[in-house]
Amino acid sequence: MSNHVYIITGASSGLGAELTRQLLLEQNTVFCLSRTENDDIKRQAVGYRYKFYSIDLSYAERVALIMQDILATIDPININSITLINNAASVSPIKDIQYCTQEEIISNVQLNLTTPIILTSNFMRLTSEWKINRRIVNISSASAQYPAQSMSLYCSTKSALNMFSKCIGLEQDGKPNSVQIFTVDPGMMDTNLQHIARTSDFELSDLFSKHKSEGHLSEPADVALNLISLIESSVKKNSDIIRLY
Ligand SMILES: NC(=O)c1ccc[n+]([C@@H]2O[C@H](COP(=O)([O-])OP(=O)(O)OC[C@H]3O[C@@H](n4cnc5c(N)ncnc54)[C@H](OP(=O)(O)O)[C@@H]3O)[C@@H](O)[C@H]2O)c1
């Protein structure tokens, strides 16, 4: 029986759902956070160590309590590692910034940036006495480095998430019982996020359609497989931004 625990945000579809499926099959304990539960995973998870929390992660002030609830159910004596995967994100709103509402701006920044920061902070503090491997994986994007019109919130929150991870990596370097933190750019995957980018009315939608029609999108199941082997490998990756493609 595996003694590894994973906490995954955005586990109902795309990359998060595939990570959850594969980690459950490896007999890991998986805590999933998103607004909706994936019915297939719910069926698959019968008899496995799986718990789903329904939460809208764009309300960042609610996420600390969930992290406390999750960690309170775990006895660190019985596990070897715990990994937080900040995966949930949204590419919306796809609009020039002057047309974004205040609510859309706040919602995007909270989901893509504030929530991962608060989860990271609480995870690190509440597990600080746990003598096990502790890891945080932040899912980023090439958009963190390439400015794009009508995608300013997505690009800038991903860019800030990269910098946040590097800063925390520095804070942890050389500390006893440190947390390993790194960022992963998974590359373009055939998920709902890509569908939204293709079907939105903006300058780059044709480019996103071309990526799909020319077969440039990876299957999220393949990306999840690579990401799990990266997480489980003992290669030192603190503060790194790792491209999976
Ligand atoms: N697809 C790509 O080409 C691509 C490329 C580079 C990076 N990425 C990154 O990869 C990660 C996964 O993306 P994906 O492509 O797998 O996206 P996806 O299929 O759209 O899945 C997004 C996940 O986030 C959750 N989510 C969205 N808004 C939420 C909210 N307000 N509260 C709670 N959960 C929320 C969704 O669940 P609910 O709707 O049930 O809440 C869903 O489980 C993201 O960080 C993304 O930026 C993707």
UniProtKB/TrEMBL annotation:
Subcellular location(s): the record lists: Cytoplasm
Specify the domain of life of the species encoding this protein: Bacteria
Keyword Ligase in the entry? The reply is no
Tell me which SUPFAM superfamilies the record gives. NAD(P)-binding Rossmann-fold domains (SSF51735)
InterPro entries, alphabetized: Biopterin_syn/organic_redct, NAD(P)-bd_dom_sf, Sc_DH/Rdtase_CS, SDR_fam
Query: Per the record's keyword annotation, is Transcription included, yes or no?
Result: no
Q: What keywords tag this UniProt record? A: Cytoplasm, NADP, Oxidoreductase
Family indicated by similarity: Belongs to the short-chain dehydrogenases/reductases (SDR) family.
Which PANTHER family does the record match to this protein?
SEPIAPTERIN REDUCTASE (PTHR44085:SF2)
Name assigned to this protein: SDR family NAD(P)-dependent oxidoreductase
Organism this protein belongs to: Paenibacillus yanchengensis
